[in-house]
């Protein structure tokens, strides 16, 4: 049987810097990034099929009913889900896959795919998380408040994950994530030798 790819999950509270760190990681490591579906409205500049597949709630629910998602969750009033088929196709082709998703979904992946390697990105402090989320300027004050409320609970779950990376600087967090990816690839290679 040919080698399967490794499924990686990058999670953590909204605004912690998952997307920023992942963009740097992808400059140095070949990874298939899953494109999620969401019912959230596109932000200025976001395009359907690029950042997300933007679905109506009915379309999203239809895909849930068809078992089309590897995981899905409601977050801050909107639905988000990982389309299963492209992820499986990439893993079967031997390519490593990365999901960048929120914490409830990441917990589901553990149940569905116990082999997945899950990395929790944590902020250096709660005050810094608040600064980053507010500073990004993509949500109004009410949405920022809701996301921070959710973050308080999400941070208590960090210890459930395989690795915790504190995103102090983007450079250091990128190096830490790359080291994890390398280590997990070495582990997979050893399993094959046996
Ligand atoms: N190490 C860092 N130091 C300072 N600012 C950072 C750092 N990492 C990310 N940021 C900034 O924090 C903001 C949020 O980052 P980003 O959008 O990557 O977060 P996210 O976790 O992907 O959020 P979401 O889950 O909502 O998609 C951005 O403005 C980004 O430039
Ligand atoms: N459970 C899932 N969470 C997802 C997915 N795609 C993205 N996300 C996460 O949702 C929040 C909010 O995203 P935003 O784009 O509105 O800021 C963030 O933490 C994303 O990582 C998914 O498929 N499933």
UniProtKB/TrEMBL annotation:
The question of whether Electron transport is a record keyword is answered with no
Matching entries from InterPro entries are given as: GK/Ca_channel_bsu (IPR008145), Guanylate_kin-like_dom (IPR008144), Guanylate_kinase (IPR017665), Guanylate_kinase_CS (IPR020590), P-loop_NTPase (IPR027417)
Name the reaction it catalyses: GMP + ATP = GDP + ADP
The entry's keywords? ATP-binding, Cytoplasm, Kinase, Nucleotide-binding, Transferase
Record-level GO cellular component terms:
cytosol
GO molecular function list:
ATP binding; GMP kinase activity
- Where would you find this protein in the cell? Cytoplasm
Give the main EC class: transferase
Superkingdom of this entry's organism? Answer: Bacteria
Query: SUPFAM superfamilies given for it?
Result: P-loop containing nucleoside triphosphate hydrolases
> Which residues are ATP-binding?
12-19
Q: Which SMART domains match?
A: GuKc (SM00072)
Any matching Pfam family: Guanylate_kin
Q: What EC number(s) does its UniProt record assign?
A: 2.7.4.8
Function as written in the Swiss-Prot or TrEMBL entry: Essential for recycling GMP and indirectly, cGMP.
Could you say which protein family the record assigns here? Belongs to the guanylate kinase family.
Name recorded for this polypeptide: Guanylate kinase
What organism, scientifically named, is this protein from? Butyricicoccus porcorum
Q: What is the lineage of its organism?
A: Bacteria, Bacillati, Bacillota, Clostridia, Eubacteriales
